[in-house]
C-alpha cells in the first residue's frame, strides 16, 4: 500500500490531493472514518494522517491537525538549518579551490578573469567593503535582498546604508529585508521603513542567517570574519542562485513587520520565551541563544527565569522536563497550530 500511495499521490501533507483532503477533513470532523473510505487515498496512511483505531481495526482515526502542523514546521526548520550549513561549506570550498589557482594562473588567464570579475573576491577593510557595495548599488536595476541579524538595528547602522537605499528607491528597485523579531522593537527601523515607503518590505523571524546582501541575483556580499571587517563578494552564478533560494525560503517562513507575532497557545509564555525554550531543548548555552535571537545574555536569562516561574521549575534540569511536558521542546508552531495546552502542575493555567 505504501508503494502505491507514493506512486499515485506524489505529494506531502502540506498539499493533499482533493480526495485525500475530503477524507481527512471528514475524519477530523467525525473523529474517525471507515477503512474503506481511505482505500482510494493510501497517501493518508503513508503520511500518517490516518491510523487504525485500536478498538476497531475497520475504522481509521485522524492524527490531530496540531500535530501535523508541528511536524511540517519542524521539517521546514530542519531544512533551513541544513541550507545554512551548506552555504558555509560551499563558501569554504570555493575559497579553497580559488586559492589553489592563484599561484599558477598565467598572466593572460589572470587578465581575462579580471576583465570578467572573479567569482569570489575577499574584501579586506570597511572602506573596501563600502566601495564594493556602492559599485553594486549603482549597477542594480531590479531588486535587493538583505538578511540583517543582530536584533534591534542601531540608527548609525541604518544611516550607514541610507544613501544606497535612497538611490535604489529613486530607480524603482524593490528591496526586501529580513530581521529577527527583536528588531520590531527598534524605533530606528520603523523610521527607516516609513522614510522608504513602498520601496522596502520587511519581515521577521525568530532567528536568521548571518548577514547577506544580494543585488539583482547577480552579486552577493557575506561576512568573511566574525568582526565583519572582511567580506566576500560572490559572483558565481550557482552560488548566488543558491543564496537567493535560501532567502526565499526564509522569506516564506517570516512574518510581515506589520503582522502581530503568533500566540504561543500557552498562558503566561510569550513568543520569544517559546523560541528560547526550543533552543534550550536543543542544548544551546545562554550566550548562543542570545546571539541567535538578537538579544542580550541578560535579557535571555530573564526570559528563562520567567519560563521557570511559569512552569513551576526549580532548576534547569526540572525546566527541561516541564518544557517537554508542555510541548515547548521543539520549534515554535504557527498560530493556526495552537491547541489547548495545560501547563503541568498549574491547574489554572490553560490556553485555548
TrEMBL record:
<dbReference type="InterPro" id="IPR016032">
    <property type="entry name" value="Sig_transdc_resp-reg_C-effctor"/>
</dbReference>
<dbReference type="Pfam" id="PF00196">
    <property type="entry name" value="GerE"/>
</dbReference>
<protein>
    <submittedName>
        <fullName>Helix-turn-helix transcriptional regulator</fullName>
    </submittedName>
</protein>
<dbReference type="InterPro" id="IPR000792">
    <property type="entry name" value="Tscrpt_reg_LuxR_C"/>
</dbReference>
<dbReference type="InterPro" id="IPR036388">
    <property type="entry name" value="WH-like_DNA-bd_sf"/>
</dbReference>
<feature type="domain" description="HTH luxR-type">
    <location>
        <begin position="262"/>
        <end position="327"/>
    </location>
</feature>
<dbReference type="InterPro" id="IPR051797">
    <property type="entry name" value="TrmB-like"/>
</dbReference>
<feature type="region of interest" description="Disordered">
    <location>
        <begin position="326"/>
        <end position="352"/>
    </location>
</feature>
Amino acid at each position: 500500500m505504501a508503494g502505491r500511495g507514493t506512486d499515485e499521490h506524489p505529494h506531502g501533507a502540506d498539499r493533499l490531493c482533493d480526495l485525500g483532503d475530503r477524507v481527512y477533513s471528514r475524519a477530523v470532523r467525525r473523529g474517525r472514518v471507515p477503512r474503506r473510505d481511505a482505500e482510494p487515498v493510501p497517501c493518508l496512511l503513508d503520511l500518517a494522517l490516518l491510523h487504525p483505531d485500536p478498538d476497531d481495526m475497520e475504522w481509521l482515526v485522524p492524527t490531530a491537525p496540531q500535530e501535523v502542523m508541528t511536524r511540517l514546521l519542524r521539517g521546514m526548520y530542519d531544512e533551513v538549518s541544513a541550507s545554512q550549513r551548506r552555504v558555509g561549506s560551499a563558501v569554504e570550498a570555493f575559497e579553497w579551490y580559488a586559492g589553489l589557482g592563484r599561484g599558477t594562473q598565467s598572466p593572460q588567464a589572470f587578465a581575462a578573469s579580471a576583465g570578467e570579475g572573479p567569482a569570489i573576491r575577499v574584501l579586506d577593510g570597511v572602506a573596501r567593503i563600502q566601495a564594493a557595495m556602492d559599485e553594486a548599488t549603482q549597477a542594480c536595476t531590479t531588486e535587493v535582498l538583505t538578511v540583517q541579524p543582530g536584533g534591534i538595528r542601531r540608527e548609525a547602522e541604518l544611516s550607514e546604508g541610507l544613501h544606497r537605499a535612497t538611490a535604489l528607491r529613486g530607480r524603482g528597485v524593490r528591496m526586501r529585508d529580513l530581521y529577527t523579531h527583536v528588531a520590531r522593537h527598534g524605533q530606528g527601523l520603523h523610521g527607516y521603513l516609513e522614510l522608504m515607503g513602498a520601496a522596502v518590505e520587511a519581515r521577521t523571524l525568530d532567528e536568521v542567517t548571518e548577514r547577506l546582501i544580494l543585488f539583482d541575483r547577480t552579486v552577493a556580499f557575506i561576512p568573511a570574519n566574525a568582526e565583519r571587517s572582511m567580506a566576500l563578494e560572490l559572483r558565481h552564478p550557482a552560488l548566488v542562485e543558491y543564496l537567493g533560494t535560501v532567502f526565499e525560503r526564509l522569506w516564506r517562513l517570516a512574518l510581515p513587520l506589520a503582522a502581530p507575532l503568533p500566540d504561543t497557545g500557552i498562558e503566561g509564555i510569550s513568543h520569544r520565551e517559546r523560541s528560547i525554550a526550543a533552543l534550550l531543548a536543543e542544548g544551546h548555552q545562554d550566550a548562543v541563544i542570545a546571539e541567535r535571537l538578537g538579544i542580550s545574555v541578560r535579557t535571555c536569562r530573564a526570559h528563562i527565569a520567567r519560563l521557570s516561574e511559569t512552569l513551576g521549575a526549580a532548576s534547569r534540569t526540572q525546566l527541561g522536563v516541564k518544557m517537554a511536558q508542555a510541548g515547548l521542546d521543539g520549534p515554535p508552531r504557527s498560530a493556526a497550530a495552537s491547541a489547548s495546552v495545560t501547563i503541568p502542575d498549574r491547574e489554572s493555567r490553560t490556553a485555548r
